[in-house]
Amino acid sequence: MSKIPYPALALLVLVSSGLTQTPGTAVNTSPEVTISVYDYAHVSAKTLAAAESDARRIFRQAGVETVWVTCLPKPERIQLKGCYLVEATHLTLKILPHAISVQARDRDDVLGYALVDEKGAGFYAYAFYDRVQRVAEERQLGHTLLGDVLAHEIGHLLLESKSHAISGIMSAHWNGDELRRISEGTMFFTPS
Ligand SMILES: [Zn+2]
């Protein structure tokens, strides 16, 4: 039997240790990660808000609170300082109209990408919106697919790994069972 590769606890410990290294940070029982969102694909505000909400729910189930900051398009109250900050607990998400990475260009089933170096460090996650939209339409998944793609790619950054799990949100291929769970909103970091 394969063991479950990424229990929620690993995620919790990882993010907690990141927080305790920050001097002057108030003690917080629930680890918190801020995500600066750059929407280059002009996703509708309603769809993006719903997808962020889905991803927030998935991370909360793993014991991590996420705060989503709109950096592009620019919000009315410009939070430039927050948008420029990039560190272990302040990640950047870019939603692109089309795939850019070499790995993704040759394969049309790739919906996103996380930039993780050989040591496991990474702060940038990407979603390829044309592909997400196509699969969402084909499978009638709506915003839930985008939310799950965001959670998967940001999951790579938080877990400091390009590896995939055998099931759940960090599985590599989303087929029948995964797509059903996405449509039901029951894809999580740990199998439920
Ligand atoms: Zn992946």
What does this protein structure show overall?
This protein is an alpha/beta fold. Helix content is 40%, strand content 17%. It has a five-stranded mixed β-sheet. A hairpin with an 8-residue loop joins strand 4 and strand 5. It is globular and about 40 Å long. Mean pLDDT is 84; it is low at 1-26. It binds zinc ion.
How many DSSP H or I helices?
A: 7
Integer-rounded radius of gyration? 16 Å
CATH H level: which superfamily? Collagenase (Catalytic Domain)
Q: What number of structural domains do the residues give?
A: 1
Instruction: Determine the strand fraction and express it as a percent band.
Output: 15-25%
Q: In CATH, what is the class?
A: Alpha Beta
CATH fold call: Collagenase (Catalytic Domain)
Overall number of strands? 5
In the predicted model, the low-confidence regions spanning at least 5 consecutive residues are 1-26
Oligomer, anyone? single chain
How is the main sheet built? 5 strands, mixed
Helical content band: 25-40%
Provide the list of bound ligands, each named once. zinc ion
